[in-house]
Write a structure and sequence with these properties.
The protein is an alpha/beta fold. The chain is about 40% helix and about 15% strand. Strands 1, 2, 3, 4, 5, 6, 7 and 17 form an eight-stranded mixed β-sheet that branches. α7 links the parallel β11 and β12 (about 195).
C-alpha cells in the first residue's frame, strides 16, 4: 500500500454508497458543494442494488436481475461524473472530528467540513439457526421441493416467502405480528396465502432456514469515538435532521436504525444532504411509503387510525395491468381534511380572481396559489373530500384528459394573437377557445390512438399534417411580423424624417442606437477582463457611480449627454441585482455584487451614487439597506424610481399601427402603472439624506397618462420598460 497526502478538501464526505449515501451525495452536489463518496465496492448501490432490492424483485418476477443491476450501477457512476463527485474506493475510519482515513489500494486522508455516515449493515449469525442463510442469498439459489423456514417479520421475510413458495413448502416464523408497521387490515390480505407460526418451530423439520432482518449496523470499523459521535443500542443516534451528537456529522440508513427500508434510507439521505448544506430539512417518516412485494403487493403511507374509504382492487392501475381483481385499496382520511381541502380550493380561486398583471410576482402574492395547492394535497383529494367531489365533475375530468394538448397548443396561439392583435382581449379569448378545440382534437386523433390503439391511421396522419402546418404557419408569421415588417412604411401621418426616427429605434438591424450597444453593456467588473472605460476617471472632475441592472444601463446616454464634464463609474449588469441581501444566481451578477461591496476601494473619488433597479415588494428592505450602505461610504445617494411597464411593448405596438394617434392611444392603454404604489411606499421609507427621482411623475404625471415619445418625435422606449437613447436623454433632462 501507498500512503498518500490529503486529497483535495471537500465540503461533504459521504461514507457509504448505498441508497442513503448516494442520495445524500447527489443532493449535496446539486446544491453546489464539493463531494466525495467512500465505498469499498467498485460501483455504487450498496447491498440494496447488488444483493437485495433489485435481485429480489427480479426473482419475484421470475427473471434474472443481473442486467438491470449492471445498468443501474453504470447510471449511478455516470451521475457521479456528471455532478463532479469524487469516488474513493476503500474502508473509512475517523481520525478526528475533521479528517477520515481511507484504506484501499492507496491509503489517503480526507479533510471534510461535513460528513454523512451511510455505512449500512452487515450479516450476523443467529445462535438458534447456525446454518441459516441470509434472505438476500435465497434469491440466488434454485430451491425446488424443499421445506423452507423463513425467520423474521420484515417485508423482506414476506417477499422471500412469496418467491420461494412457488416451488417449495414455506413457513414463516415470527415471535410477534408479521409486518408490525402495517395496518392489520392490510396484512390480512397476505396471511391466507402464507403459513405463519408464532411458536418456536423444530428446525430439524426443515431443509433450509432463511434469516430476515438479522443484521448489525456496520459501524465498528469507523472509530466514531474519535469524532465524538454517540452510539446507543448499537446504532448511531440522530435527530430529525439526521444530525448526530457531533453537529458536523450526520448518519443515515441502516447504521442509524433505518430498519432495512430503501425508501426510508433514501428519504434520510435527502434530508441529511440538505441539512449538511445549510437548508432547514427534517424527516417525517410517516410520509415515507412502506412497500411489500408480496401477493398481492402491499403499500402503505401514514397510519390508518382514522376513518377509511375502501376501493375495489380492480380499479387500481396495477390490478388492471396484472389482470387481477382481488384485494382492496384503503384510503385513510380525517374529517379535518374536508376543511383543509376546502380552504385550499378557496385560496386557489382567490388567486385566479385577485391576482392581476400588475401584482408583484413572485412575492407574497405567490402564497395564494401555492398555499392553496399545498392544502389540497395535504388534505388529500380522496373520494369524500370537497376537492375530490369538485375535481371529479365531468367538465374537470374532460379538461384533465386534454390538459397535455392544451398545454402544447395555447402558448403559440396566444403569442401569435398578441403580435397580430396587440391588446385585444377579444382575440385572446378566441385563441383560448381555439386552443381547447385543438387540444380536444389532439386527444381524439393523436393522444388516445397513440396510447390505446392503432394510431397510424388516415385520420391521425391527416390531423398531424394539419397540426404541423398550423404551428409552422403561426411560427413563421410571428417571426415575419416581428422581424421583417416594413417599419419605414408605418405611421403615414409622420413626415419622412420623423418616420425614420421610429424605424431607427425599433428596427434593431437599422438603428444601432440602443443603450444595449454601448461599451459597458454586460462588461462585468471582476470578470476576466475589466473594461477600463467603465471604471477609469480622468481626475479633477466630479465623479458619479451608476449602480444597478438594465434599468441603470439605459440611463447612461442621458447622464453623459446632460453632464459631459463628469466622469462615470458604471457597475451595472442586465438582470443583476447588486443589492445587500440579494442572492444573485448567475456568475456575472455575483461578480458585480462582489466587486461593488468588497473589491471597490476608491470611494473617496465618488461624489454621488445613482441606484436604479426594477424592484418589487420583496426587494424593499434590500434597497433601503443598500442605500444606507452607500451613505456609510460618505457619498451622496440618489434612488431612481421605477418606470411604467408597457404590455405589449412599444416596439410590438409599432408593428401593428400605421397611425400615430392610434399608436399613442394603444400605448397609453398598455401602460401598467401598478408599481407606482410600490415606488411611493419605498419613497416614504428612504433614509434621511437620500434623494429620489420619481419616474412616474416625470413620465406619466398625476393622471397617469404616460408619455410615449419625446418632443422631437423619438419613441421614448424601445421595448416594454427600457428607454431608447433619445428617451434616456429626454428623461435625464427632466431631473
Amino acid at each position: 500500500m501507498v500512503v498518500g497526502q490529503f486529497s483535495q478538501d471537500v465540503d461533504i464526505l459521504v461514507i457509504g454508497g448505498g441508497p442513503a449515501g448516494y442520495t445524500a451525495a447527489f443532493r449535496c452536489a446539486e446544491l453546489g458543494k464539493t463531494v466525495a463518496v467512500v465505498d469499498p465496492k467498485e460501483s455504487l448501490g450498496g447491498e440494496c442494488l447488488h444483493d437485495a432490492c433489485i435481485p429480489s424483485k427480479a426473482a419475484l418476477l421470475g427473471s434474472d436481475g443481473s442486467a438491470t443491476v449492471s445498468l443501474l450501477s453504470k447510471g449511478l457512476e455516470q451521475q457521479c461524473k456528471t455532478l463532479g463527485i469524487e469516488r474513493l474506493h476503500g474502508l473509512a475510519h475517523f481520525e478526528n472530528k475533521k479528517t477520515v482515513q481511507v484504506t484501499g489500494e492507496v491509503v489517503s486522508v480526507v479533510k471534510f467540513r461535513k460528513a454523512i455516515v451511510a455505512s449500512g449493515s452487515m450479516k450476523r449469525s443467529h445462535p438458534d439457526y447456525p446454518d441459516a442463510i441470509q434472505v438476500e442469498e435465497s434469491y440466488r439459489k434454485n430451491f425446488n421441493n424443499q421445506k423452507i423456514l423463513v425467520v423474521g417479520d420484515t417485508p423482506s421475510a414476506v417477499e422471500s416467502a412469496t418467491c420461494l413458495s412457488k416451488h417449495n413448502t414455506v413457513s414463516i416464523f415470527s415471535s410477534g405480528p408479521i409486518l408490525p408497521s402495517f395496518a392489520p387490515e392490510i396484512v390480512k390480505l397476505i396471511k391466507r396465502g402464507l403459513t405463519i407460526s408464532v411458536d418456536q418451530p423444530n428446525v430439524s423439520e426443515f431443509d433450509v432456514v432463511v434469516l430476515s432482518g438479522h443484521r448489525l449496523p456496520n459501524i465498528e470499523q469507523l472509530h466514531l469515538e474519535q469524532a465524538d459521535v454517540t452510539v446507543e443500542n448499537g446504532v448511531i443516534s440522530t435527530d430529525d435532521t439526521c444530525a448526530t451528537s457531533n453537529s458536523k456529522i450526520y448518519a443515515v440508513g441502516e447504521c442509524a436504525g433505518c430498519d432495512h427500508s430503501a425508501a426510508l434510507a433514501i428519504a434520510q439521505g435527502r434530508v441529511a444532504g440538505e441539512s449538511a448544506c445549510g437548508l432547514d430539512a427534517h424527516l417525517d417518516a410517516q410520509f415515507v411509503p412502506r412497500v411489500v412485494w408480496s401477493s398481492p403487493e402491499l403499500a402503505q403511507v401514514g397510519s390508518f387510525d382514522s376513518e377509511r374509504v375502501s376501493l375495489p382492487w380492480g380499479n387500481s392501475g396495477l390490478a388492471v395491468t396484472l389482470g387481477q381483481q382481488h384485494g382492496i385499496t384503503m384510503l385513510g382520511y380525517e374529517k379535518t381534511s374536508q376543511v383543509i381541502t376546502g380552504v385550499g380550493l378557496a385560496l386557489i380561486i382567490a388567486a385566479v380572481v385577485l391576482l392581476t398583471p400588475g401584482t408583484p410576482f413572485p412575492g407574497v402574492a405567490a402564497l395564494l396559489p401555492v398555499a392553496g395547492a399545498v392544502m389540497v394535497i395535504v388534505g388529500g383529494a380522496q373520494s369524500e373530500t370537497i376537492a375530490a367531489r369538485i375535481l371529479s365533475c365531468r367538465p374537470f375530468v374532460q379538461i384533465g384528459k386534454i390538459s397535455y394538448g392544451l398545454y402544447l397548443w395555447h402558448w403559440p396561439l396566444l403569442v401569435a394573437v398578441w403580435f397580430v392583435f396587440p391588446g385585444s382581449q377579444l382575440m385572446v379569448g378566441a385563441a383560448i377557445l381555439v386552443s381547447f378545440v385543438l387540444a380536444g382534437l389532439s386527444y381524439l386523433f393523436w393522444e388516445k390512438p397513440l396510447r390505446f390503439g392503432k394510431w397510424l391511421g388516415a385520420p391521425v396522419r391527416a390531423f398531424a399534417f394539419l397540426a404541423v402546418l398550423v404551428i409552422g404557419g403561426i411560427g413563421l408569421s410571428s417571426v415575419f411580423l416581428y422581424r421583417y415588417a416594413p417599419l419605414d412604411t408605418r405611421f403615414a401621418d409622420l413626415d419622412p424624417a420623423e418616420n425614420m426616427n421610429w424605424k431607427r429605434v425599433f428596427d434593431r438591424d437599422a438603428q444601432g442606437l440602443a443603450w444595449a450597444e454601448l461599451d459597458c453593456q454586460n462588461r462585468i467588473p471582476g470578470a476576466e477582463t475589466i473594461v477600463t472605460a467603465c471604471l477609469d476617471t480622468r481626475g479633477g472632475r466630479r465623479t458619479v457611480m451608476l449602480v444597478g441592472d438594465s434599468h441603470a444601463e439605459h440611463l447612461v446616454p442621458g447622464l453623459e449627454a446632460r453632464w459631459p464634464e463628469e466622469d462615470f463609474i458604471r457597475i451595472v449588469g442586465g438582470g443583476c441585482y447588486p443589492l445587500i441581501g440579494f442572492e444573485n444566481t448567475t456568475e456575472p451578477c455575483r461578480k458585480i455584487a462582489d466587486y461593488l461591496f468588497n473589491a471597490f476601494e476608491r470611494w473617496e473619488e465618488v461624489d454621488r451614487v445613482y441606484l436604479s433597479v426594477r424592484y418589487y415588494d420583496a426587494h424593499r428592505t434590500m434597497v433601503l439597506e443598500t442605500l444606507a450602505w452607500f451613505q456609510s461610504k460618505g457619498v451622496d445617494v440618489t434612488l431612481v424610481g421605477q418606470t411604467p411597464v408597457f404590455e405589449p411593448a412599444l416596439d410590438v405596438l409599432a408593428q401593428s399601427h400605421s397611425n400615430l394617434s392610434a399608436f399613442h392611444q394603444a400605448a397609453r392603454a398598455a401602460a401598467i402603472t401598478d408599481d407606482k404604489d410600490i415606488a411611493a411606499d419605498l419613497k416614504q421609507s428612504l433614509p434621511e439624506g437620500v434623494s429620489y427621482i420619481d419616474s412616474f411623475d416625470i413620465i406619466c404625471g398625476e393622471a397617469l397618462s404616460c408619455q410615449t415619445s419625446t418632443e422631437e418625435g423619438w419613441p421614448l422606449f424601445l421595448d416594454e420598460d427600457h428607454f431608447s437613447v433619445p428617451g434616456a436623454i429626454w428623461f435625464v433632462r427632466q431631473w
